[in-house]
Amino acid sequence: MSYDLYLASPGLTEAAFDRHFSGRPHYEAPGSYANDDTGVYFSFDFAEGDVEDDADPEAPDLFRHPHVAFSLNYFRPHAFGLEAVAEVSAFVAAFDCAVHDPQVNGMDDGPYSDEAFLRGWNTGNAFGYRALSDKLGDDLVVADDDLIEQVWRWNFDRHVAQAKMGNALFVLRLTCARHLGDGSPIVYATWTEGVMTALPEYATHAVLVRRPRRSLFSLFSSKRDQIETKLVSIAEVAALEGCTWCATPIGRVLLAPAQVPPSRAVRAAFEGGFPGLGKYAKPLPFDHVLNASLIASHG
C-alpha cells in the first residue's frame, strides 16, 4: 500500500535519470533513497514507456513515453512525506516534469506543487492507518506528532548541527523505542563514558555506554570486548552535577557533561549495575513509529 506518483519529461532518459541521482546524498543506487540518520526511504523507478499496439488504451498518455514512478509506503510516520517532498520537488524541477497523480486529493495531471504532494500523501497515509491500525503489536510504538517531527528534524539536520557545535561535543542520532512495561515511546541518544554529548530537550532518556569493568572473570571471558548499557531518564542526567542545560546554535540542549574532567557525580553514574537497554525498552526503526493523531482518528 503506497503513494504512487508518475513523472515524465521529453528530456528524461535512463542515462539522465542516473546522472541526476549520482551526486545526491542517501541514494544507495539511482532512485533508491535510504537515509540512515532518519530511517526514511522511498524510490524513483525509471520506465521506458509502453508503446506497443496492445497497450492499455485507458492508460494515461504519460505512460507511453519514458517516465518515472515515485513510490512511498503508507502506514508511516508523517515525517516520511516531509523528507520525500524535497527530493520529488528537485526531480520535477530538474526535468520540468509533467505529473500524473491518481491519489485522492492529489494533483491529477498537474501542475506539481509541494503543497499538493503533501496533501495527497497525508490523505493516503491516513487511509493506510485506517486499513492497518488493527496490526498494532509490540514491534510498533505510538508517539505524539510533534515528538515524531522533532526526532526526525534532529536526525535529518544532525551533521549540520555537528558542524555548528565543533568537534569538542558530539551530536548523536536519536533512536525511538517502546517501553517494555507500559508501551510508551522512549526517545534516547547514547552517552558514552568520557564523551561530551549534546542531548536535545525532547529526548526522554539517555543510554549510558561503558566498557565492562575489569575483573578476574573478565580476563577469561569472551565478552570482555563488548559494551554495557544502562537506560537513564533525561531528568536523572540533568540532575547530575556537571551536566547543564544550555542555549546553543542548535537549540536548547543538555550538555553531558558540560566540561572535562567530569564531576564525581558523572563518574559515579557510570559505575554500579548496567543491566542493558533491553531489560526496559525495545529499540525500533523509524518506520515503526506511528502518529498518535492518526491512530486516534482511525484506530
Largest sheet: 6 strands, antiparallel
The helix-and-strand class reads: alpha+beta
* Terminal-residue CA separation: 17 Å
Q: Report the principal-axis shape.
A: elongated
Q: How many beta-strand runs?
A: 17
Model description:
The protein has 299 residues and is of the alpha+beta class. It folds into 2 domains: 2-134, no CATH class; 141-289, no CATH class. The chain has helices at 14-22, 79-95, 114-132, 145-165, 234-238, 264-269, 292-298, and strands spanning 2-8, 27-29, 32-34, 41-47, 67-73, 98-100, 141-143, 170-171, 175-179, 185-192, 197-200, 205-210, 228-233, 244-248, 251-256, 281-284, 289-291. The strands form 4 sheets. A 6-stranded antiparallel sheet has the order 2-3-4-5-1-6. Helix 2 runs antiparallel to helix 3 and helix 3 (114-132) packs across helix 7 (292-298). It is elongated.
Features:
299 residues; alpha+beta; six-stranded antiparallel sheet
Summed up, what is this model?
The protein is of the alpha+beta class and 299 residues long. Helix content is 28%, strand content 27%.
Q: How is the secondary structure organized here?
A:
Layout: E1 2-8, H1 14-22, E2 27-29, E3 32-34, E4 41-47, E5 67-73, H2 79-95, E6 98-100, H3 114-132, E7 141-143, H4 145-165, E8 170-171, E9 175-179, E10 185-192, E11 197-200, E12 205-210, E13 228-233, H5 234-238, E14 244-248, E15 251-256, H6 264-269, E16 281-284, E17 289-291, H7 292-298
Parallel strand pairs: 7-17, 8-11, 10-12
Antiparallel strand pairs: 1-5, 1-6, 2-3, 3-4, 4-5, 9-10, 9-16, 11-15, 12-13, 14-15
Helix pairs in contact: 2-3, 3-7
